[in-house]
Structures are given as structure tokens and as C-alpha cells.
Amino acid sequence: MSRVAYGQKGYIGASMSANARAAYEAGEMPRSKWTKTAILGALRGYCDEMDLLYDPAVESETKAALFDRFIASSSWHHTGAYARETEFFALDEAAVVGAFRELGPEEAAERDRIRAQAAARVREAERHRREAECLFEYRFSCSPYSAMAYEAFHPELCERRVSKHRKQELVVYRLPDGSEPSGYAEMSVPADYADSSHVVPSVFISGTGGDRAWRDIDFDEAERKFAAAARRAAAFREGRPKLMQDEARRAAIRETRHRVCTAPILKSIKEIHR
């Protein structure tokens, strides 16, 4: 068959038919996509939806055994640049129902209770996170996602420079090793926007890769970090009148912004506690 043209009728892009996309959305996939993780995830999801008691013992089975036991051919669709016929597979619902027993009323009630407790913990954690970030912004007059905050918490990854053309003060920063690749070894933001720019992970996020997690910070320790960062920045501007004038202007703007923004931030904190 000839090569599929981009935007061809019945195709999405040039590598998948509209019917194949619909099959994916319905839970069907080619054999190669049914990894052991995908099969177990589908089993857990179906058991949860149909009030069946999921048995973790199936996790000891091989991918091949799980596929043969719980996955069945469901349809075929055109895929790829040459519209080849690809067989799709889906969860064999009859096999799942036959392998896992139905939850009893008490078991279902216990499951729902555990779920409700977990959901409550998630809501409480989110409320606490929002409150902490609002308080941070109120106390330090900058976003926890800003270059200004990042510089205070990660001085070893930041430095001040002056742009060659505009003679503008910059905060130059790097992300920690192991962070998601940004595409650039170094990034920078003008000092004018260092307090409001959302360019880095929140200072409440620690760790990299799979160890990334939101954690509380000590606000008094943060106060000392900001003071040290301010001293380093002042030392950088020493003997540079223009930079010192620019910082005086920025300080006045931050003070005004802090007064103006205090009410909305405090309102947000009150709404969190409703």
C-alpha cells in the first residue's frame, strides 16, 4: 500500500487511523503495548470498577502468562505510515470475572472507607501546600517558583551577571543534576522579574528524579537564606552605580507590590481554611 499522506481522510496525522485512536481510547492496544505493568493496571482498574477482589498473587505470573490468561484479540486497525493492518487486543472481561471473586458488602464498605480516608489525606495535604506557598509569598514578597527564591535556596547553582548589550542585571541559574532536561546548560532571567517569574521548581520541592517531593521548609531558615542572598547581590553591585540605582527602583516596586498584594494573599489563605 502507498504511504499515508499527512491529514489523509480517516487518519490522524500520518501514522494512525481514526479508528485505531478510538480503539486506544477504549482500552484496546496492539500486543506490543500490553506490558506486564499495563496488564496488571488494567486488571486492578477493572476489579475496582466492578467490585471484584483483586488478588496480588497474579503479580508473580510472567507477562506471557498474564497475556494468555487475561488478554484477548478484539479488533484490527490500520496503523503506521503504510497503513498496515494491526491486530488490537483488550482485557478479556469474562476471564477477569472468572478469576476474581466479587466483594462482599462488608468488604466493599471497608474499601470505600479506606478510599475516603486516603482522599481526605490528599485534600489536607493540598490545603497545607497551598497555605504554605501563600504564606511564603506573603513573607518573602516573591513566588516560591521564582528565580529570586531559587537563588536564595540554591546559591551554588546561581550567579549574577550583567548582560552585554543592555547592561542589565541578570540572575543566571542551573537546575540540579538529575532534573528534567531543560534544553539549556544555563538559563537567566532579568533581575527586574526575578521575584515574579515562574521559571524553576518550587523551593518546597526537594530531590530530583523519582525522589522529587513537596516538603515543608523552615521559614526562619529561609529568612536567613534570603538575607545571605541579598548580601551577595549587594556585593555584586558594589561599585556599579547603575545596578545600584536599578535595585533601589526594584526595591520600591517590591514594597508597593507587597502592600497591594497583601490583601489578596491573606484572602487566599482564609479561603483555604473554609
Structure description:
α2 crosses α3, α5 runs antiparallel to α8 and α6 crosses α7. The protein contains 8 helices and 10 strands. Helices cover 48% and strands 15% of the residues. The mean pLDDT is 84. By secondary structure, the chain is of the alpha+beta class. It has 2 domains: 93 residues, no CATH class; 153 residues, no CATH class. Strands 3-5-4 form a 3-stranded antiparallel β-sheet. The longest helix has 36 residues. A hairpin with a 6-residue loop joins β9 and β10. The chain starts with 10 loop residues before the first strand and ends with a helix.
Give the biggest beta sheet.
Answer: 3 strands, antiparallel
The gyration radius over C-alpha positions equals 28 Å
Secondary structure: helix percent:
40-55%
* Strand order, sheet with most strands: 3-5-4
Average per-residue pLDDT, rounded, comes to 84
Proportion of strand residues: 5-15%
Topology (SSEs and partners):
Elements: E1 11-12, E2 16-17, H1 18-25, E3 29-30, H2 36-49, H3 63-70, E4 71-79, E5 84-91, H4 93-99, H5 105-140, H6 147-153, E6 158-162, E7 169-173, E8 187-190, E9 205-206, E10 213-214, H7 219-237, H8 241-272
Antiparallel strand pairs: 1-2, 3-5, 4-5, 6-7, 7-8, 9-10
